[in-house]
Amino acid sequence: MRVLIVEDDAQLARGVVSLLRAAGHAIDHVASGEDALSVIATEPYSLVILDVGLPDIDGFEVLARLRARGDQVQVLMLTARDGLDDRVRGLDLGADDYLRKPFDVEELEARVRALGRRRGGDAAPEMRIGAMTINRSTGRVEVGERLVELRRREWAVLEALAARAGQIVSRETLQAEVFGFDDPVGSNALEVNVTRLRSKLAPDGPAIRTVRGVGYMLDRS
Amino acid sequence: MKAANDRRKRALSLRRRLGIAMLGPLVIAALALGLIGWALISDVVRRTNDRVLGGALGAIAETVQVERGEVTLDLPPAAFGMLENSERDNVYYRISVGSELLTGYADLPAPDPARLSAETPQFRYADYRGQRIRIGEVRRDLPRIPAPVVVQVAETLDNRNALRQRLMAALLLGEAVLVGAALALIRPALGWSLRPLSELRTAIEARDTRAAPDLSPLRTGPLPAELLPLSRSFDRLLGRLDLATSAMRRFTADASHQMRTPLSVLKVQVALARRGSAEALQEIDEASDRLERLLTQLLTLARADEAGALPPLEQVDLVEVSRRAISRRIRQAIEAEVELLLDSPEQAAFQVQGHRSLVYEMLSNLVDNAIRYNRPGGKVTIGLRKDAGGTRLIVSDDGPGIPPGQREQAMARFTRLQGENGPSGSGLGLAIVQSSAERLGAGLLLEDALPGLRVTVIFPNHGEAMDFS
Asked: What CATH architecture does domain B311-459 belong to?
């Protein structure tokens, strides 16, 4: 899924970006509150990891403005502050989750996964579509008894389609959810990934249909 | 606390002091009153008894007459009746003409007639028959009698003594009652007077708890004028303690807050290293450097902030300190591809009054900042100048500078102005510089060096140096 990291410490941002990229997410990074507000307005992020201590406007303010303009994007607050007050304040302002620095990497990953599942309305880690089982916690995909090995982009495509199985997902939406704006994307990168994924799921897994001029759809059965 | 107090040599307690100060004069006054009373009573007793004695004497002397050339008298019984009293004093008399006894006790001590004035009775003490007596005597010069007639009446002193003792006893009893009442009242009076003191003590003792020292001003009832300054200075002390501890608490909170980000970096990068990331080790290295630098700076700042007395001012050679700062930072400068140089007029001496280590830390942080916020190929110059306004230590760089509006913010603790991809500072460098300059009594000036930042530290000229500590 597409994640935005708002963190002014360049080194920490680098670390979190490579961590989550390795987990198959499309990650963007900005270092200020104003930048965050403007990219969130245009890009379809599934999750924003928002640091509280930012140089211009702090994370609470960013969150408050997001919610004020009706943006429902999921927000995981990241803070170096200690107080319970801060946690309560963040959650009251509409944060979906809260993590205190220094955090354990596994915890960050688990929380990101949990928030990702909640996005589809179904928080259970396992999803069954026809003969295919997707475990969104472990990233394990099985078709019947067969384990399917996916590259991270392919996983991102599958995750995005599976969350809306049976519906057409437009090409633009899929593109935006799978690639961050810094990713070097060839014009046909999405097609390449879809094609590879399709062949890995075949023959017994659910089919990915191409709806010409519109987008893609993962069959329910 | 208690043990320490007990070990101290104890001064006389206030209660005792007050007791002594009040009872001492009272006893002395009572003694003086006794002595004066004794004198007064003796005088009054003597005068009244002498008057009676004089009356008897007069009555006898009046009856002395000359009849046919002979001195005669008629002793009036009333005269002796006047002298009768409960103590049964003996009464003696003697009337003589010249050296010749007319009547009475021949051996009553005779006066010197020349010493006696006529008609005015005189009194004296004498010993007679083993007793002390008071003699009243008068001379009468009678017509046609060549020798003076001397009339003497005397009495023993029992009555006088008894009267005097009774009066003295009454006086002493009165005094005893007075002193006794004072003694009885002085304890409760002292307790009442010292109660505000013990209230104050209770208020102070209530603060001496291990749990959470309450540093707000003391809460007591209205205090007497003598204790107000004490409670005010105690409150002031509490206030300063409160400021110091809350500054310390804020500092610790800030410091721990500051450590969390590099620690997070470490955790993330360690996890990435486990998963085989190639860059992770480099990042871990950088993060530990950051932590180390942060710790060093926190300690430096804590030292610069320290409220304790500084060692005495010393002569600091700015050229020497600059060279040391350059050699400390030269590796960092080479890695950052920044040229580091000292610009000081040859053979000029730059001596200022200060503390070598503070000047060094301050300059070292300035140079660190100047290298960190610079560009590859840029320059950092340490300049030394001297003019009427003082000795200037100038550090300028080729970095982006600080916009005028943000300069004050830049000196605040833990503030980093740099945004995306900026160098990773602790946000303490300029705070250290400011704190050190303040302690050195030096001025601090942030200006545009076009393009970079120029920081000038102005040391006042010798003799004008002020110790701000």
From this structure: 2-Layer Sandwich (3.30)
Whether the CB of A8 is below 8 Å from some CB of chain B: the reply is: yes
* DSSP H/E element including B71: strand B70-72
Q: Please, where in chain A does CATH 3.40.50.2300 lie? A: 2-119
8 Å CB contact of A19 and B271: yes
| Average pLDDT of adjacent 10-residue blocks, chain B of 469 residues | 56 85 89 94 94 91 86 85 84 88 88 79 92 91 85 92 94 92 88 86 79 76 85 87 80 78 90 87 88 82 67 84 89 89 82 85 89 88 88 88 76 60 63 83 84 88 51
**Cβ pairs bridging A and B (under 8 Å):** 75
Q: Report the distance separating Cα A209 and Cα A168, nearest Å.
A: 9
Contact B151, B140 (CB under 8 A): yes
Q: What pTM does this model have?
A: 0.56
CATH code: domain B211-307 is 1.10.287
Select A126-218's CATH number: 3.40.50.300, 1.10.10.10, 2.60.40.1120, 1.25.40.10: 1.10.10.10
**CB spacing of A11 vs B290 below 8 angstroms:** yes
Helix, coil or strand: residue B76: coil
What is the domain partition of chain B in residue ranges? 12-208, 211-307, 311-459
CA distances from B129 to A147, A175, B158 (A): 152, 150, 14
Query: What class is the A2-119 domain?
Result: alpha beta
Tell me which chain B residue has its CA closest to the CA of residue A103. B264
Q: Read off the amino acid at residue A140.
A: R
CB contact under 8 A, B268 and A22: no
Give the separation between CA B157 and CA B54, rounded to whole angstroms: 15
CA dihedral B143, B148, B151, B157 (to 10 degrees): 150
Q: What is the nearest CA distance from A81 to chain B, expressed in angstroms?
A: 6
How many whole angstroms separate alpha carbon A139 and alpha carbon B299?
46
